[in-house]
């Protein structure tokens, strides 16, 4: 694919995200007045627009091992990431990712300023003061939904780009399997085999257990987050997969 076509692919990605954001904003305005589904309305009004984005190897790894930074994205994919950052009010990453990768979280390839940086520690430290919950194993975890609600309510952020690491990505998708949380997903897949730290782990959610008013049933179907109308964009050697959740 030649350079003009590559840049056209970049434009399609950013244009699609803009459309998703506009649709979300229009939905917010409708919900301010009336909604046929009051439960969905209440959820959407509490949360910012959430874009989940990360780079992984072709075998689903985000790094060689935990705590070891691993460059996966090509130059054009990195440019895309910086462009997407300028479209959001905040970037959300785990503290472990900051320590390991020391990401600059700036938009070197595109104009615009990021209003804020926010970090959540997925192993229990409360960087922005959100509450923690205990998982099935008894370990304390940050309540990612509560954290995002705080970003909307206390910081006034209407859009957040979640970049990782693995614990934060898993928490976001696990919550999305239970109830709406993530709006758009952008995944960069590099043609590299690593066999390292998996990007996502343990998403299976029992549908009966996910419903607070229903008794859990071991035979109930398992629900997994699934992209709606996914799009596929080659960027140099990388493949970008994008869709609504």
Topology readout:
Layout (H helix, E strand, L loop, with lengths): L2 H31 L4 H9 L2 E9 L3 E3 L11 H12 L3 E5 H7 L14 E5 L11 E3 L5 E3 L1 H10 L5 E6 L1 H13 L5 E7 L6 E2 L6 E2 H4 L11 E2 L4 E8 L2 E7 L1
Parallel strand pairs: 1-7, 1-8, 3-4, 3-7
Antiparallel strand pairs: 2-9, 5-6, 8-13, 10-11, 12-13
Helix pairs in contact: 1-3
- CATH top level is Alpha Beta
Count of runs of 4 or more consecutive helical residues: 7
The assembly state of the depicted protein chains is single chain
Let me know the average pLDDT.
Answer: 79
Largest sheet: 7 strands, mixed
CATH topology: Dihydrofolate Reductase, subunit A
GO molecular function, one term: 5-amino-6-(5-phosphoribosylamino)uracil reductase activity
Keywords: NADP, Oxidoreductase
Pathway: Cofactor biosynthesis; riboflavin biosynthesis
Protein name: Bacterial bifunctional deaminase-reductase C-terminal domain-containing protein
Structure, described:
The chain has 245 residues and is of the alpha/beta class. The protein has a single domain (3-24, 41-244), classed as Dihydrofolate Reductase, subunit A (3-Layer(aba) Sandwich). The chain is built from seven helices and 13 strands. A seven-stranded mixed sheet has the order 4-3-7-1-8-13-12, sandwiched between helices. Strands 2-9 form a two-stranded antiparallel ribbon. Helix 1 packs parallel to helix 3 (75-86). The radius of gyration is 18 Å and the shape is globular. 30% of the residues are buried. The model is unreliable at 35-41, 109-116 and 213-217 (pLDDT under 50). Keywords: NADP, Oxidoreductase. Pathway: Cofactor biosynthesis; riboflavin biosynthesis. GO terms for molecular function: 5-amino-6-(5-phosphoribosylamino)uracil reductase activity.
């Amino acid at each position: 694919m030649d350079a003009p076509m590559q840049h056209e692919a970049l434009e399609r990605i950013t244009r699609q995200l803009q459309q998703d954001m506009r649709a979300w904003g229009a939905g917010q305005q409708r919900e301010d007045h009336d909604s046929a589904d009051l439960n969905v309305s209440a959820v959407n009004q509490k949360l910012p627009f959430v874009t989940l984005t990360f780079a992984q190897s072709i075998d689903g790894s985000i790094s060689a091992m935990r705590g070891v930074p691993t460059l996966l994205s090509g130059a054009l994919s990195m440019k895309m990431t910086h462009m997407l950052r300028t479209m959001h009010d905040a970037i959300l990453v785990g503290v472990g990712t900051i320590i390991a990768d020391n990401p600059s979280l700036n938009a070197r390839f595109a104009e615009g300023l990021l209003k804020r940086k926010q970090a959540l520690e997925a192993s229990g430290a409360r960087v922005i003061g959100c509450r923690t919950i205990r998982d099935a194993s008894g370990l304390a975890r940050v309540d990612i939904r509560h954290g995002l609600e705080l970003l909307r309510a206390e910081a006034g952020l209407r859009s957040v780009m979640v970049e990782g690491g693995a614990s934060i990505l898993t928490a976001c998708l696990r919550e999305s399997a239970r109830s709406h949380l993530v709006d758009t997903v952008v995944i960069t897949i590099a043609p590299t085999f690593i066999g390292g730290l998996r990007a996502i782990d343990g998403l299976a959610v029992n549908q009966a257990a996910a419903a607070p008013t229903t008794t859990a049933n071991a035979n109930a179907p398992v629900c997994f987050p699934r992209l709606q109308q996914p799009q596929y964009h080659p960027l140099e050697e990388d493949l970008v997969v994008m869709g609504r959740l």
